[in-house]
Write a structure and sequence with these properties.
Distance between the termini: 52 Å
Number of helices: 39
CATH topology of the largest domain: Serine Threonine Protein Phosphatase 5, Tetratricopeptide repeat
Number of strands: 2
CATH architecture of the largest domain: Alpha Horseshoe
Radius of gyration: 29 Å
CATH class of the largest domain: Mainly Alpha
Keywords: ANK repeat, Repeat
Number of domains: 5
Pfam family, one: Ank_2
Strand order of the largest sheet: 1-2
Shape: elongated
Structural class: mainly alpha
Largest sheet: 2 strands, antiparallel
Length: 662
């Protein structure tokens, strides 16, 4: 090791002296042990010696060092520099003629591959740079490769705001969590360069990249987090029979347990429930405890969700079917039980019964508006958009879709709502919803304005109804979502909207109304949402629960309130972080202690400093944004990386669009 260090120090001396005689250096590097070490040494160690040479512009020594690092010839480096030039300029036709499977892996004097230059796009990426990147990947370019600073192609795409290439690289399995020598991931790089749209895109794409493990971080501990496409049973499908008939004693206990869940008696549920009992079926109609609960129209108890979560965690299976092939999801949709429906995993929400009906069809037949909306709104999220075309056009055994059911049953307003959702699209380029008609956009803008300004003349009650209070803006936010966040929306109007709106609705990133209420410490909104059926443990696309959002943003009251409603402090996001860990990362010892304390412990509340109390709130930051040229990278007291989300909540509905175009 000492000999290698001596060699590398000699390289520095060559560079400083601008020596043109590199014969001795070549001889030293041709020695096999030295050569093998140089080609395998950690990037951090290699860069420590390389960049001093680069800074004094001794390209001859740099070339020697690179050749032995990457096993390239002088000619290889020349080819790499030529390909880098073509890729950075977006010269796709010329690139097609010269790039090969071998040459697309070559490195220039900075250790960069042609793919990295295509991703960079000379800081002004175009469609041609996307074509170059696609070509290079098709020819075998490595999306995992890093240059001598540890930056990958994804880092360069993030730095330049090259949205199409970001998505292309993620599809090519590029590692979004890879950090460069400074410890920056691609997301960190995008934020450092104030690339707001790239930050938003990387946020959702990196979350979807970890979906395969996120199931263990949420309430659902049974199903896969990836959508499980529809299982289509035959018309004569029978439920799985239990090995023996249920005894009369067990039938009594099953009904007793179901009653305890329905009435929100959590202690009683914990006393009675067991993994074996929740798998038992009633002999007459083959229903399980979960089916008995789903088939009841009584689901308004405050602890109802906690009781359901307890039996789900014990192994209650939402995929089981009764004699009609109905799952608990079908039964919940029939009863318009939005509180139960939100607790089921996405993978079971579009299964078919014996007649081929999905829960959405059942909800339409029973005019269960809340459940219809919940099932339709799922496809506004980035992670589920790819399934929309298939799942919303499913047909039963008589070739009828959910839209057909709405039309045939004479529910024109519901049919129109389904048509609206079918027309909405989530962009493949960056997270953005489009597809509203001019009339719908006008109604949405008017309602947003009334919510933000406080509606002094009572117009909101005259305009809002089932069909317009859940219309999404570009980021998937609805009027009700804005109402639960806004300080200017009266409690009267908030309660009015709650009668029509989907309390479980999320934006494109999976953040629900409850996530936003928790972020901004809206106590009344949190209480209203939980009562309306919002799940306190529902994760967004990154695996963050409302409790984590409150903890991350230093909202003690929201943390305490969510805990009182049964929020699980032990859940982790897709990065393995609990709510307490989020508080620690924000240096909030008070909330961290609150989340880690045992029942019965007390937590002393530290004195708040003048400096901290003087910090502006998020809403205040929005009010002082002077124009569409404002710096949207500034942060609020909640630690947000930029004002993108705050702008989306501003009074001016055009501000977000203008800021995005900038």
């Amino acid at each position: 090791m000492g000999e290698v260090a001596r060699i590398l120090k000699k390289i520095i001396k060559f560079a400083i002296d601008f020596s043109e005689d590199i014969t001795e250096l070549e001889e030293l590097l041709q020695n096999k042990p030295n050569y093998e070490y140089l080609s395998s040494v950690e990037l951090t160690e290699f860069s420590k010696y390389y960049w001093p040479v680069w800074k004094v512009e001794n390209r001859e020594v740099c070339g020697v060092l690179l050749r032995y690092r990457f096993s390239q010839t002088k000619e290889d480096i020349k080819v790499a520099i030529h390909l880098a030039d073509l890729s950075s300029r977006g010269h796709i036709e010329a690139l097609k003629k010269v790039v090969t499977k071998q040459s697309c892996l070559l490195r220039d004097l900075e250790g960069r591959t042609p793919l990295m230059w295509a991703a960079m796009g000379c800081w002004k990426p175009t469609e041609r740079h996307l074509e170059c990147a696609q070509l290079l990947l098709n020819r075998g370019s490595d999306p995992f490769a890093a240059d001598l600073r540890g930056d990958t192609a994804l880092h360069f795409a993030a730095a330049s705001g090259n949205l199409p290439v970001i998505e292309l690289l993620i599809r090519a399995k590029a590692d979004a969590q890879a950090a460069n020598l400074q410890g920056f991931t691609a997301l960190d790089t995008a934020q450092a360069h104030d690339r707001v749209e790239a930050s938003a895109l990387l946020h959702c794409l990196t979350a979807s990249q970890t979906d395969n493990v996120s199931s263990r971080h949420t309430v659902d501990k049974r199903g896969s987090s990836q959508p499980k496409l529809v299982k289509t049973p035959s018309a004569t499908a029978e439920p799985v029979a239990s090995s023996a008939k249920t005894s009369s004693e067990n039938r009594k206990i099953l009904h007793q347990l179901a009653s305890a869940v329905i009435n929100g008696q959590l202690d009683e549920v914990k006393r009675i429930a067991s993994p074996n009992l929740i798998e038992e079926r009633l002999d007459d109609d083959s229903k399980t405890v979960l089916m008995l609960v789903a088939d009841s129209d009584q689901w308004h108890s405050a602890s109802y969700s906690n009781c359901v979560e307890h039996i789900l965690n014990l192994g209650a299976n939402p995929e089981t079917k009764d004699v009609n092939g109905d799952t608990p999801v079908h039964l919940a949709a029939q009863q318009n039980n939005i509180k139960l429906l939100t607790l089921f995993p996405y993978s079971v929400k579009f299964l078919k019964n014996n007649t081929g009906q999905t829960p959405l069809m059942v909800a339409v037949l029973n005019c269960s508006w809340r459940c219809c909306k919940h099932l339709l709104h799922l496809f506004r999220q980035i992670r589920y958009r790819q399934d929309k075309e298939e799942l919303l056009h499913l047909k039963d055994n008589d070739a009828r879709s959910a839209l057909d059911y709405a039309r045939l049953s004479g529910r024109a307003d519901l049919a129109k709502y389904i048509e609206t959702e079918l027309n909405l699209t989530v962009s493949d380029t960056y997270p953005c919803i489009s597809g509203l008609t001019e009339e719908q956009e006008s109604a949405q803008t008017k309602l947003f304005s009334l919510v933000q300004k406080g509606d002094p003349d009572g117009e909101l009650k005259q305009l809002a109804d089932h069909t317009n209070c859940d219309l999404p803006n570009a980021l998937g936010q609805t009027v009700f979502m804005r109402a639960v966040w806004s300080r200017r929306c009266s409690q009267e109007n908030l309660k009015f909207l709650a009668n029509y709106a989907d309390s479980s609705c999320t934006d494109v990133f999976g953040s629900s109304c409850l996530h936003w209420a928790a972020r901004y410490d809206r106590e009344a909104s949190i209480k209203l949402l939980v009562k309306a059926g919002a799940s306190v443990n529902s994760p967004d696309q990154a695996g963050k629960t409302p409790l984590m959002c409150a903890s991350e943003n230093g909202k003690r009251r929201a943390v305490e309130l969510l805990l009182s409603f049964g929020a699980d402090r032990n859940l982790t996001d897709c990065e393995g972080r609990t709510a307490a860990r989020w508080a620690e990362m924000k240096n909030d010892d008070e909330i961290a202690a609150l989340l880690r304390k045992l029942p019965g412990d007390t937590v002393e509340k530290p004195e708040q400093t003048v400096a901290s109390s003087a910090q502006p709130t998020g809403s205040q930051l929005v009010q002082v944004v002077p124009s569409v040229t404002a710096d949207i990278s500034q942060t609020d007291d909640a630690g947000s990386k930029n004002l993108l989300w705050l702008i989306a909540f501003s009074e001016d509905p055009t501000l977000f669009v203008t800021a995005k175009s900038n």
